[in-house]
Structures are given as C-alpha cells and as structure tokens.
Amino acid sequence: MQTLTVEREGLLYAIKCIQYYCGGGYYLLLWALAALFLLIRGTKAERRYFVYPALMLLLTVFNPVFPVLINHFFDINKEYYRFFWIAPVIVTVAYTAVRSVFEKTENRAGRIILSIGILMVLAGAGTFAYADGYTVQENTYKVPNEVIAVSKLIRENSEVEYPVALCDFNMQMEIRQYDASILLTADRTQYLAVINNEEQDDQVKEQNTHVNRLLNVITKNVAIPEEKFLESMQETNTEFIVLSKESPVIDYLKESGLTEVGTTGTRVVLHYDLPERRPMELADYTQFWN
Amino acid sequence: MIQLLIATALIILNFILYAAFGSLVTGRLKDRPFSATVSVITGFFLYYLLFELVCVPIMLKWRPLSLLSEIWGVILAVVVIAAVVLNRKLLAVKVSETGKFLLSHKKFAVLSAVLVLAELIVIIHAYQFTLDAAFYVSTATTSLQTDMLNIYDPYTGMWQDHFEMRYFFATYPLNDAVMCRLTGVHPLLWTKTVMEAGTIILSNLIYYRIGKHLFREDYRKTFLFLVFCGFMNFFFTTIYTASAFLTTRTYEGKAILGNVVMPLIFLLYLKLIEDDRDKMLWLMIFMTATGSAVLSNSANMLVPTAVAVFSLPLAVIKRRFSVLIKAFICVLPCLLLVLMYVAYVRGMFVIYTYPR
Predict the structure, then answer these.
(1) Is A268 helix (H, G, I), strand (E, B) or coil?
(2) What is the DSSP letter of A242?
(3) What integer pLDDT is reported at residue B1 of this predicted model?
(4) What 3-state DSSP class applies to B152?
(5) ipTM of the complex, rounded to two decimals
(6) Which chain A residue has its CA at the smallest distance from B190's CA?
(7) pLDDT score recorded for residue B94
(8) A44 touching B, CB under 8 A?
(9) Contacts of A186 in chain B (CB under 8 A)
(10) Do A91 and B235 touch (CB under 8 A)?
(11) Is residue B182 part of a domain?
(12) A37 Cβ partners below 8 Å, 6+ apart?
C-alpha cells in the first residue's frame, strides 16, 4: 500500500489498510460472520479450528496497535497488507457454506439450488478478477506479439551484442522478460519516479541526471536543447528509443538525428548512431574462480 | 501445440520431482500411511530448501548459473533414482491403491480434475500486465543470458556492485533459470505457464487436504468445498489479496506464499489440534517455514507471524508451553533472515559481487 504510512496514519493505518484490502468487497466481513456463526452454533472442534485463530488475528494483525508497534523495528509500510493473508478467509467461508448446504436440506436438488445461491452471494461480495475484461494471451510467451517484434527489430539493427534501449513504459516492463540481451537505460524506480513526479533527493537526482532528462523527453514531451539530449543519449549509451506511433516527440527525436528503423503494430523503433560507442561486455569472473 | 505439450510434460515432471523429494521423507514413515498428496506438498518445500542450500554458496562465490544447473541436475537425478530404489515396493502398492481410490471415487476425481483444469485454463490463458514480472521473470532471463546469478540488474541488465539482500535468499526465480537451462525452454513459458500451473494445482491440493480433514473424508462435501474455494479465488481480488496473486501474478513466489504456504500452515494447525506431539507435523512446519524463505523475502515476516497466530491458541487448547518453544524453533531460520535483512538495510553489511 504505497500511499499509506504508519507514521502519518498512526492507529488508523491498520483500518485504512483493511479498507484498501477489501476494496468495495465484503469478504473479510463474510469471514467475521462465518467465525461468529461457528462461535455460536459450532461444535467445540469447529471453534478450535476457526474461532480461536480468528480471535488471535483480531488481537494481532487486525489490531490497530500492531503495525504501529512492529514499525518501530521493521519498515512494514508497503507490505503490511500481506499479514492479512494469514487469515483463513476462503477456507472458513467455504467450510461454513458447505456446512450450511448439507445442514439445511436433505435432497440433492435443494443442495444444488442452495449452493448456487451461495455462489451468487460470494460473487456479489467481491469483484470478479476479470471485471475489466479478459485479455487472451497472444502467444505462449504471454507477452504481446509487439514485444517480440520490437526486440527482433532492435536485434536486427544493432551491431553490438548488448544494445541499450529506452522504451515506453509497458514495453520497458516486458521487453527484457522476452530478450535479456537488450539492456535498458532506466530501471523501474527511475521510470516511476519521473512519471509520478516523485521527489528525488539531490544525490539521486545528480546520479540520474541523464536518465531523467531522457525520460522527461519521451514521457512528458519536455523540450530540451538538442545537444543536451544527445549528450544524455551518449552518456547512457542509449542506441534505441521505442515509442508509441502517436507520441508527439517523434519529430523532435528525428530532428535530433535519430532514424526510424521500423514500426510494429502501434510502435516505432528509432535508432541513434552513437558517436562514441562503448559496447557493454559481461564481467569476467573466471579470474576469481580458482 | 508443441509448446503446450512441452509445458504439460514439464508440469508433470515438476510434480514427479516434488513427489520424489517428498517420498524420501514420507516413504520412510512407518507409523502412518503413505500419501501421494502429502508427499508432493512435503517434496515441494524440501526441493526449494535443498535448492537454497546449493544455490547460496555458489552465488556467494560468483560462480555461473551453468555450474549450479549441472549440480542441481545431478541432485535431481540422484533424488529421483533414490526415491525409486528406496520406495520401489511402496510405489507399486501405492499406484494400485491410488487407482483403486480413483475408481471408487470416480465422480469426485473426475469433477475435481475438471474444476482444477478449468481454473488452469482460465488463469493461464489470460494475458496479465504486471510490473513485478519485470523483476521476477527478468531475473530468470538475465541469469540465463549472462550465465551468472543475481550479478546483473534484472530491470536494466546492468552490472551491480553488490547483491540486493531483499532478493538474495529468495532464490525462487533462480530455480526458474536453472530449470530453463536444464530443459531448454524459454523463461516466459516456464514461469508463466509451467510454474503457474504448479502453483494452482498445489493450492488446490492443500484445499483438498483441508476439506478432507474437515469433512472426515466425505468427498461430496470436500468437492463442494473445493468449488467454493476456487470460486472465491476469482472474486476476492483487490490487488492486495492472495487470491489476486493467484489469478494474476501466479508466477511470483508471493503467490505461493499466499495460496500454498498460508493455507498449509492452517492445515498443519488443524492436524496439530488432534496431536500436537506429532514430530512429523512440527518437522513439516519447519520445512515449510524454511522452504518459504526461498519463495519471497516477505515469508520471513509472514510465516513466523502465521505460526505464532496458530500456535498460541494451540498452546492454550493443549495447555502446553512446549508448543510455543517448538513453534519458535520452527521459525528461527526465518527470524534470523529477517535480522540479517534489517542489518543490511541499516548499512551494517554489504555482500559485493566482486572481491574487495
């Protein structure tokens, strides 16, 4: 939960985490109701199985004091929600549902109808994993075909074993999953910092001067003097830029000396002939092996 | 089509390997019946625990992936041969027993298989754009490309002067790289199909064991339990839930942590309520805790907390303080790794990727 911090939220942190965790759904509520039902109507064994752990969880990970306490020792701000995984929500709700189905009715048809009813409640209590649409994979690699086409274009137009490229965000996140011989100018943190306008401390800003400059050009269309742009291309050893065909900076890049080496469905691949090429080579570790 | 056949064969191979590892423990137990599902689950954690013990020293000595792959290939061969030789009598009996079980519970077996297959098809067939794949899958592709282990930044491919301790002991993606090297398949096929399928099947196996335990081997109830569990995993899906990791980020170690490790700890708690002095169950908790450290750095915090959450009521129910001591011993390796990570974050040590 990137936007929440224990320092800022204090005792409200756990509550806000729970709200984020549930989204608009009611699964934690269903779990609490199932545990309550088993506390009242359950057998001794059922209480031991489900109710005692639920009470322990309420006293610990769902307790607003708990994150405040452990944050003194470890930074748990971003990942506290994972503690909620300990709660056996699915198992408890499913168990109670099965128990209800078999307790409420004896006949097969009744059980089927009740089960369908419960499934409808369960569907209504949450959000379908593919509510925003189900995208079928385009190939067995499970990356868009364009990733494969772009990496092929880069390989065909590079004279070095490890070409360096700067791509639009989605391509940036996927291209090295397919072909790790293509190096990238910016890492994920640098990329996200620029597109989200995150504050960088002076040391980081200085270290990232050239990367930030290039990212500002391709993601925000920030116009900078051509020589500064090319200086950053040289300093970062960047030979290729991959952008959407719709990107407004393509003309600027072409005017700065980059040439189009090809296009794919929605992207254009531009090449820059580095004045001073410093091909990346793998470090030689064999000398340390004896 | 060929890729699909290869992927299917590799999924089966993975389960044979887990079963072989597990059977070396479960096949030796004389006081309880041999179980294929328990062997697979035990084997999974034993597999990764052993991999960690082999991988970390090789990484520390800056040795190549190819060396790790050769050593791991030999270990896998030895384990499989040992499992077959040591369990040969048991295997014949168990294959026939499993056949009889499937025949006598034909409806349950077929319906459960259809249910899991449906989950597999829906999840594996979907394309998901997730940022963390840029790290996890690229760790495997980068390792294969450079023939080194965690020396190069998976995001950019650039050389790193020190190991990132957050991922140092979480060697799960390095096992992906090793298996890709041994089998020759692309890391994308391995991680996003073979391992995804493995996680979904393992998760269902644990739900099956929980259902079987809770409903005292009533397979009608167990099947309905599997239906509800599977269904809920598709609806309890804000980006933070374990179910969301199962349906969208299945190739990550964290998906296994949320959907295999956590339900398994709950299952072991159910078993311990019946007999908290069963050494095998405590050994299983120890293996799960230690093996989980390989999956994700988060496991080092999450597993001790989960074990504490379940062992405190257990200690009260059984009125035995020794339960807490056993639980503490089980999670000690995780706690040591947490302390190590905290020391690294506070700048107390760095492990460089070259001699200094």
Answers:
(1) strand
(2) E
(3) 81
(4) strand
(5) 0.95
(6) A141
(7) 82
(8) no
(9) 156
(10) no
(11) yes
(12) A96
* Alpha-carbon distances of B97 from B33, B85, B245, B294, rounded to whole Å: 11, 19, 35, 34
Question: Residues for chain A: how many in total?
Answer: 290
- Residues near A228 by Cβ (< 8 Å), separated by ≥ 6? A213
Lookup result for tokens 């496991």: B299
Residues spanned by the domain of B210: 2-345
Are A134 and B126 within 8 A, CB to CB?
Answer: yes
Once rounded to an integer, what is the mean pLDDT over residues B98-108? 91
Q: Is A64 at the interface with chain B, CB within 8 A?
A: no
Asked if the structure places residue B354 within a domain, the reply is no
Whether A230 and chain B come into contact, CB under 8 Å, resolves to no
Mapped onto helix, strand or coil, the DSSP state of residue A260 is strand
- Chain B residue with CA closest to A144: the answer is B127
Q: What is the per-residue pLDDT for A96?
A: 98
Q: Is B279 exposed, middle or buried (0-12, 13-18, 19+ CB in 10 A)?
A: exposed
Q: Which of B155, B224, B238 sits opposite A23 (nearest CB)?
A: B238
Residue at B136 is within a domain: yes
Whether residue B334 is predicted with pLDDT greater than 80 in this model: the reply is yes
For chain A, the domains span 6-124, 145-271
**Could you list the mean pLDDT of each consecutive 10-residue stretch along chain A, which spans 290 residues?**
84 94 94 97 96 96 94 87 97 98 90 96 96 93 96 95 96 96 94 84 74 92 90 95 95 94 96 91 88
Report the pLDDT value the prediction gives residue B98, as an integer from 0 to 100.
Answer: 85
Q: How many domains does chain B have?
A: 1
In a domain, B355, yes or no: no
> What is residue A201's predicted lDDT score, i.e. its pLDDT?
72
CB-based contact A56 B305, cutoff 8 Å: no
Residue type, B333: P
Is the minimum CB–CB distance between A59 and chain B shorter than 8 Å? no
